[in-house]
């Protein structure tokens, strides 16, 4: 029976585990979770999902055919070092932002099959936009299994590893951009005289409706935008302000800078690992 061993028991691990169980992709007893030291957190996950939990890393690895790395990037070395002696040829899946497959393999000191994934926080409600990339040790069957696994928490696209920084800058960080946009709309609503709850309802339904139009109408965003925009009307007046304030340029700079930051972090982790494994 395929079992998944999860190293790291934070919010991303919980989102994936709950998706796997809710989507009936795995039974709770096929999932075994470990973290650094927080027993209370492990007990919480055991109680909520019926999964196995343990501090014994050897037990996690020996029971698992897939190992999910879900600690923070800064903890990657300590995390991998605590399991590497027990790893034989299991499939490694990492959700760590900005940690390359090469860096992961270097810490393991083994050429293992590694899949890097970039989900986003909407994984917790089964709506993540995830992209995955694999090294050449990953079989087509294993890649498909990973795709299915991430489809339990939303959508999943296979990309080249070199594209994962861009994915991180676009959809990994993306929910935060949209939340920031909503915060701005809330401030704007207040300034035009719409109080809290009323504004919130209008904003959320507008976003949900627009998202559904984008996914179901088959029309490009620019076409949908033009359908809202009457000549000399209110939308045109509003959009003119966004153009005047360089909205498009700000958004492009935002995604580019986040992508660049992902590249920087990747370099930084790679250098740290080279220095400590020398
Ligand atoms: N938050 C986000 O939007 C996204 C996060 N990610 C990635 O997901 C990963 C996890 O993020 P969160 O769940 O938000 O973090 P978190 O801080 O909630 O959880 C991290 C977990 O790792 C455990 N841990 C730390 N050191 C460990 C060690 N040496 N051995 C075993 N476990 C250890 C901690 O005990 C904790 O349970 C990060 O690497 C992040 O880059 C990926 C995509 C999006
Ligand atoms: O901000 C970050 O670095 C992580 C990666 C994608 C979302 N959160």
TrEMBL record:
Task: Just give the chief location class.
Answer: cytoplasm
What Enzyme Commission number(s) appear in the record? 1.5.1.2
**InterPro entries in alphabetical order:** 6-PGluconate_DH-like_C_sf, NAD(P)-bd_dom_sf, P5C_Rdtase_cat_N, P5CR-like_CS, P5CR_dimer, Pyrroline-COOH_reductase
Q: Which residues form the Pyrroline-5-carboxylate reductase catalytic N-terminal domain?
A: 3-98
Keyword Acetylation tagged: no
Record GO terms (molecular function): pyrroline-5-carboxylate reductase activity
- Entry-linked SUPFAM superfamilies: 6-phosphogluconate dehydrogenase C-terminal domain-like, NAD(P)-binding Rossmann-fold domains
Biological or metabolic pathway of the protein:
Amino-acid biosynthesis; L-proline biosynthesis; L-proline from L-glutamate 5-semialdehyde: step 1/1
Q: Which UniProt keywords apply?
A: Amino-acid biosynthesis, Cytoplasm, NADP, Oxidoreductase, Proline biosynthesis
Annotated PANTHER family? PYRROLINE-5-CARBOXYLATE REDUCTASE (PTHR11645), PYRROLINE-5-CARBOXYLATE REDUCTASE 1 (PTHR11645:SF49)
Q: Which HAMAP family match?
A: P5C_reductase
> What name is this protein filed under?
Pyrroline-5-carboxylate reductase
What is this organism's lineage?
Bacteria, Bacillati, Bacillota, Bacilli, Bacillales
């Amino acid at each position: 029976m395929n079992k998944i061993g999860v190293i790291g028991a934070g919010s991303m691990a919980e989102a994936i585990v709950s998706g796997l169980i809710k989507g009936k992709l795995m039974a709770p007893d096929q999932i075994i979770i470990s973290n650094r030291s927080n027993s209370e957190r492990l007990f919480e996950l055991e109680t909520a999902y019926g999964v196995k939990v343990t501090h014994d890393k050897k037990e996690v690895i020996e029971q698992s055919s897939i190992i999910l790395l879900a600690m923070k990037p800064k903890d990657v070395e300590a995390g991998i070092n605590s399991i590497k002696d027990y790893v034989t040829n299991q499939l490694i899946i990492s959700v760590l932002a900005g940690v390359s497959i090469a860096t992961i393999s270097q810490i393991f000191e083994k050429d293992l099959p590694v899949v890097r994934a970039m989900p986003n926080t909407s994984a917790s409600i089964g709506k993540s936009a995830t992209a995955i990339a694999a090294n050449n040790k990953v079989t087509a069957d294993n890649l498909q299994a990973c795709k299915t696994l991430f489809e339990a928490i939303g959508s999943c696209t296979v990309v080249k590893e070199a594209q994962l920084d861009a994915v991180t800058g676009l959809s990994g960080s993306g929910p935060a951009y949209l939340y920031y946009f909503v915060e701005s709309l809330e401030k704007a609503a207040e300034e035009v005289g719409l109080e809290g709850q009323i504004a919130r309802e209008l904003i959320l339904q507008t976003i949900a409706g627009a998202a559904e139009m984008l996914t179901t109408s088959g029309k490009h965003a620019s076409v949908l935008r033009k359908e809202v925009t009457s000549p000399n009307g209110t939308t045109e007046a509003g959009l003119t302000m966004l153009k005047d304030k360089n909205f498009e340029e700000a958004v492009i700079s935002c995604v580019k800078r986040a992508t660049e930051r992902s590249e920087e972090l990747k370099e930084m982790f790679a250098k740290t690992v080279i220095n400590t494994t020398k």
